[in-house]
From TrEMBL:
InterPro entries: AB_hydrolase_5, AB_hydrolase_fold. This is Alpha/beta hydrolase fold-5 domain-containing protein. SUPFAM superfamilies: alpha/beta-Hydrolases (SSF53474). It comes from Allomeiothermus silvanus (strain ATCC 700542 / DSM 9946 / NBRC 106475 / NCIMB 13440 / VI-R2) (Thermus silvanus). Keywords: Membrane, Transmembrane, Transmembrane helix. GO terms for molecular function: hydrolase activity. The chain crosses the membrane at residues 14-35. Residues 77-233 form the Alpha/beta hydrolase fold-5 domain. Pfam families: Abhydrolase_5.
């Protein structure tokens, strides 16, 4: 008597296991990427800062949010968020800068990574060409800001928080303010001093006592960072004063 043929059944089981394994692997990779790229969420005070009041009007735009001061703006600041940080986390600080008379564009970037959209600042600048513009950014956002500033003649000044350029800009002369923190565990002060050599000639470099890497936004704690000794709200006041004093010097006629 002949034996039953089992090959088709064996082949079917093999392909079921094969495709099941592939789907499982794809799902695992997708889950890992989602967790790896998921932005650090903004704290509740960020949502509060997105509400308009008598001093600052907040408008959602195609590129993010605009903070518009009462009266005619003195100039503009286009701001790139830090890497893997929900961009609205910077709303409290951007709002404070706007209260001093500057139109601030807080920009959304894909995947929370500004290096994927380094030319994003073209959008607010093109929308309001009547203003003198600075660009700025935090951490990886500062890398994007410095790259954009080095290649666009419309940019009058550069503002960096815990950031430095990707390339050597020491031979350029674009006015630059670079703020670093004494408690920064992601970009420690000793490394920041080394990287500051890449900044444009004449850059104003400040090390803020008690600031850590996440002191500039309403989020945290950030992996690898130290604990800040300056409370967030007090820190934003310090930074906004530094930025506004700098913009007053370089965006005014």
């Amino acid at each position: 008597m002949s034996q039953p043929q089992r090959a088709p059944f064996v082949n079917k089981r093999f392909w079921l296991f094969f495709f099941g394994g592939m789907f499982f692997l794809a799902g695992a990779v997708a889950l890992y990427v989602w967790f790896a790229l998921r932005p650090l969420p903004a704290a509740p005070e960020a949502a509060q800062a997105l509400q308009s009041d008598a001093r600052v009007s907040v408008q959602q735009t195609s590129y993010g949010y605009d903070f518009i001061p009462l009266g005619t703006p003195k100039g503009g600041l286009a701001f790139y968020p830090g890497g893997r940080v929900e961009y609205t986390a910077y709303a409290p600080l951007m709002r404070q800068i706007a209260e001093f008379g500057y139109r601030v564009a807080l920009m959304w970037v894909p995947f929370g990574l500004a290096v994927t959209a380094e030319n994003k600042a073209q959008e607010p600048i093109a929308a309001h060409p009547e203003l003198a513009w600075a660009v700025g950014g935090h951490s990886v956002g500062g890398v994007a800001a410095s790259t954009f500033a080095s290649g666009d003649s419309r940019v009058r000044a550069l503002v960096l928080f815990a950031a430095y350029p990707r390339m050597d800009l020491s031979a350029t002369t674009i006015p630059t303010l670079a703020l670093f923190g004494s408690k920064d565990g992601v970009l420690p002060p000793e490394e920041a001093r080394q990287r500051a050599r890449l900044l444009p000639k004449g850059a104003e470099v400040r090390f803020l006592e008690g600031f850590n890497h996440s002191s500039y936004g309403a989020y945290g704690p950030q992996p690898g960072d130290q604990a800040a000794t300056v409370e967030k709200l007090a820190g934003w006041r310090i930074v906004s004063r530094e930025v506004v004093a700098f913009l007053e010097k370089h965006l005014q006629p």
